[in-house]
Design the sequence.
């Protein structure tokens, strides 16, 4: 016969010790708060803030053009290189793409979020939530490369456009300077489509959350006072839900600003900030210039977040 093991019960000494520790912590809530928040805050300070600090320090160094070595001497020489016309074009190009993607995502997300918040039944809302979030379960690289196949010259989108007789219009659009390219898969238009798709869920959820906070009684009061649906939307719904739009734009704008995978996969020879950082850090080994490029989006986002805070966008997150 097998012997059954009887679980060991804590001894009186152990029980007394745990009771003493519990009582000690109960009367010291600040100590409990420190013990709970201390490790994650320490991790954030060391890993996140520490890495940003390292980037900031390295951005004040410079690369010796003769020896190719990093000179660890504090100077603004590296930041001066950011104002070269070619580097300014990189910033302008990236900011323009981030603004375009943010506006497009807001225009697409708002009607869907409004339907989810005001008209969809609980079951239908759950299905829409699932449809919005399912793409996030797959790898970001898989989604980008899927769009690379879709937008390729021999891809399904070009094939469909040819079937409906709009291939000439597509070729005319691709011939336009600044946004065109050899195909949709190698052009700023393709990058714009991929960016808009990839970051769309990050715009839908904050807007839907903000719209659910708009009391239906305000809409009914507006209608009782004789306002038409569009007037109610413009004067009641949009102002109250605008913090949600700004909250979503924080994600879409910042993620587009620093991304390098989409430009590298779907772009042409024109660099974006993420590609420039990758090139200077990896290919040329110019870590100070790469760090200076990285601090550009950081400064832009700090300004953006300060503006967003004034609109109450953080309440919609």
Sequence:
């Amino acid at each position: 016969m097998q012997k059954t093991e009887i679980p060991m019960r804590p001894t009186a000494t152990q029980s007394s010790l745990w009771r003493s520790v519990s009582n000690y912590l109960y009367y010291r809530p600040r100590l409990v708060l420190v013990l709970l928040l201390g490790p994650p805050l320490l991790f954030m300070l060391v890993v996140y803030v520490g890495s940003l600090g390292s980037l900031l320090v390295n951005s004040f160094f410079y690369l010796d053009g003769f020896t190719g070595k990093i000179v660890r001497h504090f100077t603004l020489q590296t930041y001066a290189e950011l104002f070269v016309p070619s580097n300014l074009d990189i910033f302008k190009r990236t900011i323009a793409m981030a603004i375009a993607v943010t506006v497009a995502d807001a225009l697409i997300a708002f009607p869907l979020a409004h339907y989810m918040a005001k008209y969809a039944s609980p079951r239908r809302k759950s299905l829409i939530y699932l449809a919005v979030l399912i793409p996030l379960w797959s790898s970001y690289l898989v989604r980008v490369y899927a769009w690379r196949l879709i937008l390729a010259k021999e891809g399904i989108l070009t094939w469909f456009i040819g079937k409906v007789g709009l291939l000439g219009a597509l070729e005319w659009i691709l011939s336009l300077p600044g946004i065109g390219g050899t195909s949709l898969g190698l052009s700023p238009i393709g990058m714009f489509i991929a960016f808009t798709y990839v970051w769309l869920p990050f715009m839908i959820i904050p807007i839907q959350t903000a719209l659910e906070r708009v009391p239906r009684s305000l809409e009914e009061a507006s209608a009782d006072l004789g306002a038409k649906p569009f007037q109610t939307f413009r004067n009641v719904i949009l102002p109250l839900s605008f913090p949600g739009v700004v909250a979503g734009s924080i994600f879409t704008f910042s993620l587009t600003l620093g991304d390098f995978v989409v430009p590298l996969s779907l772009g042409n020879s024109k660099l974006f900030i993420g590609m420039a950082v990758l090139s200077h850090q990896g290919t040329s080994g110019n870590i100070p210039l790469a760090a200076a490029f990285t601090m550009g989006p950081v400064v832009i986002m700090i300004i953006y977040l300060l503006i967003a805070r004034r609109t109450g966008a953080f309440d919609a997150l």
